[in-house]
Write a structure and sequence with these properties.
Order of helices and strands of chain A: HHHHHHHHHHH
Distance between the termini of chain A: 41 Å
Largest sheet of chain B: none
Radius of gyration of chain B: 16 Å
Structural class of chain A: mainly alpha
Helix content of chain B: 55-70%
Oligomer: heterodimer
Distance between the termini of chain B: 39 Å
Helix content of chain A: over 70%
Radius of gyration of chain A: 23 Å
Shape of chain A: elongated
Structural class of chain B: mainly alpha
Number of strands of chain B: 0
Largest sheet of chain A: none
Chain lengths: ~240, ~160
């Protein structure tokens, strides 16, 4: 319908103002959703593209492992994909900032930090399941579950930590493009290192991988904690 | 449903008001609608329950007509708020054009353009398909354009 007519319809049907709205809304008690219901509802707020990327990553990994024989190349291929998986998770968490949604979300019964924590829980659980899936899929690499976990976990955690660090330090809406570049850089770095220095996948270097893995896990959770606390500060500043 | 109870209150009130043309009764029916709605549904269920809310409102309006035997208050016939719209003449012309539509089409105009309900929600409320809602909207547009072009609405 043309805009002139649409606007005229809206303006022509304007009723007299209500008189008891505030009184009624303050008086009425309505049943609220449980915490678990709100948590599950957060799944609906996560964009479908995230689940699509998860599914595509899993399919890519599955078919890639079918055609690649060398164990190191399997791990390299999967390691290169995972930074982009972490990127779509980071982007999802911070779409609130990108689209200035903090104000509307502050009006929720649950505080903004709690909402963020809920989404992190949903996405974290999903990515944990994905990582387990990847470890299983690349099981034919002969490295064993432990080594596979470390080899694919390090680039994933590195990309996640760096993206979280960038987002917490810089508050521009376009910062997500920088995070994309970081994920690309981590992915590219893994490909280059794996192609030219395959020696790093030998058992002798395992201790370096483990140290990196443990350090990155610690840094990652520290950064997540800082991000959530900073949202709380933002809420108080807004109030 | 939007999390904004105030916004939905206003929209349901608007819907009731343009059905029964009585401010006080419309507000009473609005409150009754929400009370009945909350008896059966949790407020934070999103999306599809909006049609249910409007169905309750419509049924409450029907009950009102049956009980009141359609007593209409003259001062409420205009359908305007206390502030006179800037373009009163246009508003009257548009309202009269809408009144020439059938009841269902008038309801669709109210839901779609005044209360800004989605097509899916309107389809659920009217218990028809989305495709049929689109066809009705096209038909409404054609009829309104025909009527309004005679009134020099398009200049």
């Amino acid at each position: 319908m043309d805009k002139k007519l649409t606007l005229a319809l809206k303006q022509s049907f304007s009723p007299p103002p209500t008189q008891q709205r505030e009184e009624f809304i303050n008086y009425i008690s309505y049943p609220t959703a449980k915490f678990s219901e709100v948590l599950i509802s957060q799944i609906g707020y996560i964009r479908k593209r995230v689940w699509l990327i998860f599914a595509l990553s899993a399919c890519f990994t599955f078919f890639y492992t079918k055609f690649v024989e060398t164990p190191k190349n399997i791990v390299m291929g999967v390691s290169a994909v995972l930074p982009f998986l972490s990127l779509c998770i980071i982007a999802e968490i911070f779409k609130s900032r990108t689209y200035n949604m903090e104000e509307t979300e502050f009006a929720c019964k649950y505080s903004f930090p709690k909402i963020i924590l809920m989404r992190l829980s949903v996405l974290g659980t999903a990515s944990f399941v994905m990582l387990i899936l990847f470890v299983i899929i690349i099981g034919k690499s002969d490295f064993g579950i432990f080594r596979n976990t470390i080899y694919i976990g390090v680039p994933y955690l590195c990309s996640s930590y760096l993206s979280l660090l960038i987002i917490s330090k810089f508050h521009s809406k376009e910062i997500i493009y920088v995070c994309t570049a970081v994920s690309g850089a981590v992915s590219g770095f893994i490909i280059v290192i794996s192609s030219n220095y395959q020696i790093i996948y030998q058992v002798d270097f395992m201790f370096i991988w483990v140290i990196l893995f443990v350090t990155l896990i610690g840094l990652f959770f520290y950064r997540i904690n800082r991000v959530i606390k900073s949202q709380e500060e933002l809420q108080w500043n807004f109030v | 449903m939007s999390l904004d109870l105030k916004e939905q209150y206003e929209k349901v009130y608007s819907f009731c008001y343009f059905k029964i043309h009585n401010r006080e009764a419309a507000e009473d029916i609005t409150q009754e609608t929400f009370l009945k709605y909350f008896e059966t549904t949790k407020y934070l269920e999103k999306g599809k329950k909006l049609a249910f809310l409007y169905t309750i409102a419509r049924n409450c309006c029907c009950d009102y007509f049956r009980k009141s035997k359609q007593t209409v208050y003259i001062e409420d016939l205009s359908g305007f708020s206390e502030e006179i719209p800037d373009n009163l003449e246009t508003a009257i012309v548009v309202q009269n054009a809408v009144l020439k539509l059938n009841k269902e089409e008038q309801e669709i105009v109210l839901l779609r353009f005044v209360n800004e309900l989605g097509i899916g929600e309107i389809a659920e409320y009217l218990t028809i398909s989305r495709f049929k809602v689109y066809r009705k909207l096209n038909s409404i547009e054609k009829q309104l354009k025909t009527i309004l072009s005679k009134e020099d609405f398009y200049g």
